[in-house]
Design a protein that fits this description.
Layout lengths: L5 E7 L3 H12 L4 E5 L13 E3 L3 H10 L4 H8 E7 L9 E6 L1 H14 L3 E5 L2 E7 L8 E7 L4 E9 L8 E4 L2 E4 L10 H8 L5 E7 L2 E3 L9 E3 L22 E5 L2 H9 L5 H4 L13 H7 L7 E6 L6 E5 L7 H8 L10 E3 L2 E7 L17 E3 L9 H20 L12 H12 L23 H12 L4 H22 L8 H5 L6 H7 L8 H12 L1 H19 L16 H10 L4 H5 L6 H16 L1
Helix pairs in contact: 1-10, 2-10, 2-12, 3-4, 6-9, 12-13, 13-16
Length: about 600
């Protein structure tokens, strides 16, 4: 009988990355343990209680298409749903939902508890156990040691530590060790990683104050409602039947900005107290006021944190200013003149591992069997973390089976874009996903994530049969609808040719062929996009084929980049540090030119014929 402390895979940290990693590994049949300091904080929404957004919503739908939990959990616990960028093209559409914070945590915990093969353990991990390298090999992770000295053994480990590695909270000049408010940080894991030869660095993030919604004068704010017909995240959810709770919009003003500028010497980001880099696209209000000095106001969203609480999240006012300044600042904002702060905003600095030290599978290069996912890789956001977790947990389980890792291409998924960006280009600020990062975003839409990824998940064993069957039914309906559109009548052009015109909506086709009225909306949307954008996608296929040819040119594991003749020293150093696995990845490294790739191709050809 196996020991209760021996598993195939250990996942350390039960945030959004750790949860998806543990669930994916268990779905693939690995005996998995999810180890966290507090089980009552599984999938806790430390910052904004919302899921999705532009590009982030695409990631959530991809996670769902591969069998992950995030989409199902937000469908069951969301309190407001919106499809962002509706006025733009379909590649820019992004679903977003405000969550009931407590209900979301409870739903994800329920999913974890009901997952066969997954064990939950409340422990604080402080060290990694390693088996020394064999000649020509790498050291291999074998387990962890907790703060109480308890040893857990495993054949693979996924670290998803979030902001807990040597985390420090900043409230003005006051500094407190912690992974987030009320929870202790850990120093041991950072030390263990450095002993293993992995570099660490520091990033910063922050959160705004939370207010008592009963003390807000909503009459002075703008209503921000959800969609009339909300769209679900999960492909398994047919429709959403929930009462939506409105959000509200207000703005900062000149008085707020003057107060902030007068207290910059007390702001850790400007006093020199915080030295690390924060997220560019979600900056503190102090940074916004300084960086955008020409703007006389900044938009703020007042977002409820749940159905059974009066606590609201003041999105857009992230700050680490001292509490007295936060009190004064909030009361200068329209509608918040009498607002009571329930919890003050703060900044947090934490260790992360620069991700060019990872393989595309998210396994560390120096240590076999050790995978990293989430903010430990320099990313920001629940969605980015969850996507990495799903891939890391999947690849840890696949490695134990002796199978090839799941490495998605940039033309296959936003998840593929994100991982390739991280391991190939590294990060110099907390990484956030945007549609602009995806060169093939027209094919990576949120509406077709199941068509792109569920067959892959089904092949690996990640998805349940009902998901496969639902996709097969959808594909049949798409094929049948396309066949109807391709018919011609009495010498007239087919309806498919008519639909190719940008100005032709689906409703025009229904008027010409009434039987199309029975086509489900989701199917009609897929057919419309497939037809209207066929030409653009065909042109993209040419570039994708070229990238695939480069990807097929593999670079051996032990290839000596430093000895490449006729290549610039800078290029040799970058190639040796990142160690790309193929020519396509090499070509995407920042600073690597087409000439460098050509030299590399020549040397590879010579080594293959030698």
């Amino acid at each position: 009988m196996p020991s209760p402390r021996e598993f195939d895979i250990l996942v350390v940290g039960a945030g959004h990355a750790g949860v998806e990693a543990a669930l994916a590994a268990a779905r693939l049949g690995a005996a998995t343990a999810l180890v966290t300091s507090r089980l009552d904080t599984i999938a806790r929404m430390s910052c904004n209680p919302a899921i999705g957004g532009v590009a982030k919503g695409q990631i959530v739908r991809e996670i769902d298409a591969l069998g992950g939990a995030m989409g199902r959990a937000i469908d069951r616990t969301g309190i407001q749903f919106r499809m962002l960028n509706r006025r733009k093209g379909p590649a820019m559409h992004g679903p977003r939902a405000q969550a009931d914070k407590l209900a979301y945590h409870e739903e994800v915990r329920r999913i974890c508890q009901e997952q066969p093969g997954l064990t939950l353990r409340e422990e604080t991990v402080e060290d990694l156990l390693i088996e020394p390298a064999t000649p020509g090999g790498r050291p291999h992770v074998t387990g962890v040691r907790t703060a109480d000295g308890v040893v857990y053994r495993a054949r693979a480990i996924v670290l998803a530590t979030g902001t807990f590695m040597q985390g420090v909270l900043h409230y003005g000049p006051t500094q407190t060790p912690g992974g987030r408010v009320g929870e202790a940080a850990t120093a041991g894991v950072s030390d263990a990683l450095r002993r293993l030869g992995l570099r660490t660095a520091r990033f910063k993030t922050g959160t705004p104050p939370r207010l008592d919604g009963r003390t807000i004068d909503y009459a002075k704010t703008q209503l921000h409602p959800g969609d009339d017909v909300p769209e679900p995240f999960s492909f398994l959810t047919d429709r959403l039947d929930c009462e939506q709770i409105p959000c509200y919009i207000t703005y900062t003003n000149a008085a707020v900005h003057e107060l902030i500028l007068a207290n910059l010497d007390r702001a850790p980001m400007y006093s020199g107290q915080i030295q690390s880099t924060g997220p560019r696209y979600c900056p503190s209000i102090e940074t916004k006021v300084v960086r955008f000095a020409d703007k006389d106001r900044h938009q703020l969203f007042i977002e409820p944190e749940g159905r059974a609480t009066h606590e609201v999240y003041l999105n857009g006012l992230s700050t680490s200013l001292p509490p007295d300044v936060q009190d004064a600042m909030v009361r200068l904002i329209p509608g918040l003149e009498r607002a009571a702060i329930l919890r003050y905003g703060y900044a947090i600095e934490y260790d992360f591992v620069p991700p060019e030290q990872l393989k595309p599978s998210l396994e560390t290069k120096p240590v076999a069997g050790l995978y990293l996912a989430g903010q430990i890789n320099g990313t920001t956001g629940y969605e980015e973390a969850a996507g990495q977790g799903l891939l890391a947990g999947t690849n840890a389980a696949l490695a134990l089976r002796g199978d090839e890792p799941l490495v998605l291409g940039r033309d296959e998924a936003y998840l593929g874009v994100m991982v390739d960006d991280l391991v190939t280009r590294g990060v110099d600020e907390p990484y956030r996903m945007f549609t602009s990062r995806a060169e093939y975003r027209l094919r990576l839409r949120q509406d077709n994530a199941d068509r792109r990824l569920t067959p892959i998940g089904d092949r690996l064993g990640l998805v349940e049969p009902v998901r496969r069957e639902k996709l097969q039914r959808k594909e049949r309906q798409i094929a049948e609808t396309m066949a109807l559109l391709e018919r011609t009548h009495a010498g007239q052009a087919s309806l498919a040719k008519l639909l190719r015109r940008p100005e032709t909506p689906w409703s025009d086709l229904v008027g010409r062929l009434p039987e199309l009225a029975a086509v489900p909306e989701e199917v009609a949307r897929q057919v419309t996009y497939d037809v209207k954008y066929a030409g653009y996608l065909a042109r993209q296929d040419i570039d994708i084929a070229r990238q695939h040819r480069l990807a097929d040119r593999r670079i051996p594991d032990g290839f000596d980049f430093t000895g490449l003749a006729h290549m610039r020293m800078e290029a040799r150093e970058k190639l040796a540090r990142i160690r790309p696995t193929n020519l396509a990845q090499a070509s995407r490294i920042s600073g690597i030119t087409p000439a460098d790739v050509a030299v590399l191709m020549v040397h590879l050809a010579r080594s293959e014929t030698a």
